[in-house]
Structure prediction request, 244 residues.
Amino acid sequence: MDIPHQFLDSWNEYMYLGAIAFVVLGFLILGYHEFRIIIIKDLKEKYDYVNLNEIKFFWFAIMAFIMAGFMFFNTFATDMIHKSGMTWFYVRLFITTSFAVIFYFISFSSIRIYYPRFVEKRLNKIRNKPRVSPEGNIMRKLSEQEEDAHLEQSMIEEELFHSIDYDVWIDEKTGHKKIEKYFAYQHSEECPECGYYTFKIEREELEKVPTADNTGLFIKHFKCSYCEHREAREQVLANLASNI
Prediction:
């Protein structure tokens, strides 16, 4: 069955325009994400934004590029379709759809397995970048030993009994203090079994409550979302007397 030239010409035109539109959309998504990061001045807010949105926006952009590729390759071999008929039009459509689906799953797996490593590096860079006080002075990040003196007892208990960490920044010229709260369970680690950054805290368990005389025991249960490897890590909690 012959296909009218007008149909194929219109099809190719729409496919070209669609491919260009999706390429532009992909770059706009990435550009919008990076612009949002630039305009967020507070580093903790920047950290939270990247943590919540980096992978999501990157995935949206990849989806746009896959659609662009699908449309672009649906303009190939038009002369052969004119000569051979409608069958090859559907063959081309089937092949391009199949490749789009394959690239979808490859991209999904790659982003889930490999991209968290780059996100964690970016987050660590933001988290450890020196803060600036309202007076314009560079602040110093306190060590674990120093920061307890600046935390409330409830914050210290959160660090002990939950996967929560506090960073304390001090302006040593004015005494201005900034306390930032981070959630460890939101982050991926390198899986000891498969080596991918898909190892996260699944649940926590307070095995033994610390007392004034005895240490406690806190267990973090990890699970890899890729290879399903599980691991429990014990954390000894200092006795309450030493935490006061």
The longest strand covers residues 199-208. Strands lie at 140-141, 164-170, 177-183, 199-208, 216-224, 230-237. The mean pLDDT is 87. The first helix runs from residue 5 to 39.
